[in-house]
């Protein structure tokens, strides 16, 4: 082959190569599908697991909700509330938002006039921010005595005490502030329990990153993020609460939300063993129990005399998840607020005697002035 012929042939091969490469590239591109994208919040596929399901519409036994909030009960439609309670088999709802003094009296009067005094009960509240006033302690003790005299069954302490309440010098009022000791002593003398909410989930103090189980909640509710200076380390707040319990052994304390140790039941177990006047309630932590069914079952079996039923925010449809976790053996079902718990839960299938203690017996023991007639056939 002479040189011109060779050059011509090479040129044709080069052209053919680029044509074939173009066809191959076009074919590959047309075969590719667009890569779907979504945010983490959007990814929540329904489970394809096929297992037996039991969805209780009411509790197996009448129950007492020791932790409920009804902020303006003096004007609330109580007939509607009672109908909802009956549908759930809730015998008694305990409103922790009693406010105290005249406000409590208005609520108690409304309940009494409606004829529901045995169905709706109250814990009172007190104001800490006047702690430095010369007459604060005397007036506060008198208020507690008055509130109990008109029907208050206990005292509720909000998380603001220890978190945001400050004295006249701008100093945070610690949970175990010695200036408050007469309050706890008075509750012990009156025989009323103190239900106390201290701090928040520990994850609120942890870095807001991919390792934080509450990442989505903190994104949606950024005001819940805390630091060691806002207002103090989580461990410090919890230890202040535990110190308070230890200092007042004659007063009964109910740690709200299982003292935020529902995800560490071994630690909570050691605390209950150490502090006999400490009780816990399950409000807003049922998802923690539901994701560890074997450990939770062992815990509730051992401490069946120390755990009370509580829900926190009143929402009738959400109680059904509590019943399902406590009563059934269902597997792998969701919590009702994904930003609280993105995992699935399992039923604990608790024995009847344990259920009855959590649902009502322990509350009747701690608050003996509650009407026990609802539960006579179940004892």
Counting helices, strands and paired strands, the structural category is alpha/beta
Radius of gyration: 29 Å
Helix-residue proportion? 40-55%
Task: Estimate the mean pLDDT confidence.
Answer: 92
**In DSSP terms, counting alpha (H) and pi (I) runs of 4 or more, how many helices?**
13
How many distinct folded domains?
1
Order of helices and strands: HEHEHEHEHHEHHEHEHHEHEEH
Q: What is the CATH fold-level name?
A: TIM Barrel
Distance between the termini: 110 Å
Report the sheet-strand fraction: 5-15%
What are the low-pLDDT stretches, counting only 5+ consecutive residues below 50? none
The CATH architecture classification is Alpha-Beta Barrel
Q: Sketch the major β-sheet.
A: 8 strands, parallel
What shape does the CA trace take?
Answer: globular
Physical arrangement of strands within the biggest beta sheet: 1-2-3-4-5-6-7-8
Count of individual beta strands: 10
CATH class: Alpha Beta
Instruction: Write the CATH homologous superfamily.
Output: Metal-dependent hydrolases
What features would you describe in this structure?
This protein is an alpha/beta fold. It has one domain (63-378): Metal-dependent hydrolases (TIM Barrel). 41% of the residues lie in helices and 10% in strands. The protein has an 8-stranded parallel sheet with strand order 1-2-3-4-5-6-7-8. The longest helix has 29 residues, at 3-31. The protein is globular, with a radius of gyration of 29 Å. It starts with a helix and ends in a 13-residue tail after the last helix.
């Amino acid at each position: 082959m002479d040189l011109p012929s060779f050059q011509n042939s090479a040129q044709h091969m080069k052209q053919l190569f680029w044509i074939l490469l173009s066809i191959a590239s076009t074919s590959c591109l047309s075969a590719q599908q667009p890569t779907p994208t979504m945010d983490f919040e959007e990814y929540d596929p329904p489970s394809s697991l096929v297992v037996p399901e039991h969805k209780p519409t009411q509790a197996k036994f009448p129950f007492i909700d020791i932790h409920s909030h009804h902020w303006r009960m003096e004007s609330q439609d109580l007939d509607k509330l009672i109908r909802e309670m009956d549908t759930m088999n809730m015998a008694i709802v305990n409103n922790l938002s009693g406010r105290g003094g005249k406000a409590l009296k208005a609520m108690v009067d409304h309940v009494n006039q409606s004829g529901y005094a045995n169905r709706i009960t109250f814990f009172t509240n007190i104001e800490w921010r006047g702690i430095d006033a010369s007459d604060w302690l005397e007036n506060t003790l008198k208020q507690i005595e008055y509130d109990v005299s008109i029907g208050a069954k206990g005292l509720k302490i909000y998380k603001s005490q220890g978190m945001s309440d400050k004295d006249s010098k701008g100093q945070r009022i610690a949970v175990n502030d010695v200036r408050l000791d007469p309050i706890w002593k008075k509750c012990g003398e009156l025989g009323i329990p103190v239900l106390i909410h201290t701090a928040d989930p520990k994850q609120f103090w942890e870095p807001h990153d991919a390792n934080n189980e509450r990442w989505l909640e903190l994104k949606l509710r950024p005001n819940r993020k805390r630091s060691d200076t806002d207002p103090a380390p989580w461990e410090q707040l919890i230890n202040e609460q535990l110190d308070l319990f230890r200092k007042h052994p004659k007063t009964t304390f109910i740690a709200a939300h299982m003292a935020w140790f529902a995800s560490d039941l071994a630690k909570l177990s050691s605390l209950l063993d150490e502090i006999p006047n400490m009780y816990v309630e399950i409000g807003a932590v049922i998802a923690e129990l539901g994701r560890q069914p074997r450990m939770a079952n062992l815990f509730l079996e051992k401490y069946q005399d120390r755990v009370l039923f509580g829900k926190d925010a009143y929402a009738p449809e959400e109680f059904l998840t509590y019943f399902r976790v406590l009563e059934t053996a269902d597997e792998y079902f969701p919590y009702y607020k994904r930003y609280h718990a993105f995992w699935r839960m399992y039923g604990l299938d608790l024995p009847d005697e344990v259920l009855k203690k959590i649902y009502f017996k322990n509350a009747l023991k701690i608050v003996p002035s509650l009407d026990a007639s609802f539960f006579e056939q179940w004892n």
